[in-house]
Please model this.
Amino acid sequence: MGKRSSSGFWLTIACSGLILTAGYADQRQNPPEKTGWLESAKADWAGWPDRILQDSHDTFFRPDNLCALLLAGGASIAMNQHADKEIAEHFEEHSALDGFEDESLNVIGSPATHLAATGLWYALSAENQDEYNKERAWTMMTALAVTDLTTAGLKLIRNNENPNGGNWAWPSGHTASSFTVASVLDEFYGPKVGIPAYVLASLVAYRMMDTGDHWASDVVFGATLGWVVGHTIAGKHKLFEKPEVAGFKILPYASPQNGTVIGITLMKQF
Model:
């Protein structure tokens, strides 16, 4: 009996060391049953409201985030006294964007564009059984939802006019959404993607002031809101992503054969 247990113990260690190859072979021989993106979306949608509420709580009740938003709000109030009008007059006299550039940045910075692009990212990832990118797309979707809902609520509360005489000026939805996208991409892919994304978000913010669609204070708070929400939510969910080695995902492995064998396996879809 004792000898048998000892053999089983050493067999467990040996199998754990070889499981990198065995586990990968098992994944190729027994691929998971493929489900369409719609079925995947239904499953994720069921828990989405709870995820939005939890991520909103974790974002807006963090002391550093709350401090940043309060400072941005204070800056908005201060700018609204004199600076907003002076900046708006400057852009009215020295408008730089018109025609194609203006409309392109308007579309690129639109929350609707961001949601549509993220939905396509999610659908393609789910259809290809790419759980890694599917989760990243769902995180982006959640961050955008939190930003858009917060922006809409603040617009309803403030309901001030923009330089062009339109309603719902503060904060800038285009700016907030663009900086959310840039912040999430920065968290996921680092400065090589993050910096160009921030540059594009800044151009969108510039366009909002250049065309008179928003005051400078609308843009300042919108950028801060997007930055806070994007970095917090993406940073939170990035912690739960599975690590990779040379493009292979590292997954836990367990087998009931020859006793309980526990180890790790590398998996990659081709």
Remarks:
- The radius of gyration is 24 Å.
- The CA atoms of residues 178 and 201 lie 5 Å apart.
- Residues 2-29 form the longest helix (28 residues).
